[in-house]
Amino acid sequence: MWQEFGIALCLMLVLEGVLPFLYPRRWRDALAQLVQLSDRQLRLMGLASMLLGTTLLYLLH
Fold this sequence. Notes:
Blueprint: H1 2-22, H2 24-35, H3 39-60
């Protein structure tokens, strides 16, 4: 189980690094917009992301 967790963590880091590598200016602008969101909006985005990830994991597994 720990090996799969490590693999998932590494893949997450690779995927999160793609946008800053390819489009640094757009990525910086997107982060600037995220800073302006309220805590509620950020929490809703986080919840939506977790639900989408869980659903996709369930469908793929």
